[in-house]
Amino acid sequence: MPGDNPPTAAKVSLGRKLFFDRRLSFNNTMSCGMCHIPEQGFTNNELATPIGVEGKSLARNAPTIINAVFLENLFHDGREFSLENQTLGPLLRQDEMANPSIGLVLQRLGNLDDYDGLFERAFGGGPSAERIGMAIASWERTLVAGDSPFDRWQYGGVDDALTDEQKRGLGLFTGRAGCTGCHTIGERHALFTDHKFHDTGIGYIDFENRADDRPVEVEISAGVVIAVDRKVVRSVGNERVPDLGRFAVTLDPADKWRFRTPTLRNVALTAPYMHDGSLRTLEDVVRFYNGGGVPHPGLDPLVQPLSLTGEEIAALVAFLRSLTSGGIDSLVQDARNAPVGN
Predict the structure, then answer these.
(1) What is the pTM of this model?
(2) pLDDT at residue 62 above 60?
(3) How many angstroms from the chain centroid is the CA of residue 164?
């Protein structure tokens, strides 16, 4: 908790209301909660990348905000470092909530009767950019979930909290599969991230495929994918800009194609995976790493072919499912109690 934004019930309630209010978008159609859907692990299970204002597809998968309070860097490229600042970017991005200025957002809030007195009770003054960020961050800090079967086994000493298959998967995770090289486990706690940036080849292969004339796989509804001629796709949408990952933040050539290591807590709830949502299941993710990622000059040396058997892949996936926390339903219920105006 930052010293200049101690939590209060008034801040949390206001932040939750702002998070789910579509009126904060330019055309009153989008809220933060439409990409970070409570019932879907506070991400979006239905699309590889979510849809922003006016139906525009975003470039990146929506990361879960459960336990985001513990992350050192935010967004897939790590361009923000605090929840207070992170909340403001989507309000102004043209492909997300598309407000032309923060002043317009503040003017709108000032004209909404159901916000009368809420900022004053929370902060002692009216709406401001800083207070919007502080309120939403205060609510997001309540989205904390531990108490997974892994926790009960690893830190609580409950031997039967994990199945035998999950224990085999944990052995692979910390051993031959090398997963803890990036998804770390500590002696007293585990967030399953090293807070660093790695090139797995996903960004690189996406860039290489842009010059490809093969059909494009298009998701027309949840889990339904068809092949569409690439010329047709180009005729109805803007050409996607290459996603260079961390490089866009640092301008360091060594950071090209690198993306932040995500936490694996509650990973079974947050499909699809990778920064672009290109891998649909946990099985797909494990098979991707089993094959050694996408070989190219910048590939992180930690990514190597693993030669896992089918049974070992299944055990790893079973272990990943043991990272699902108890109490998620309570977080969802609390989120859906947000008072949203008309």
Answers:
(1) 0.90
(2) yes
(3) 30
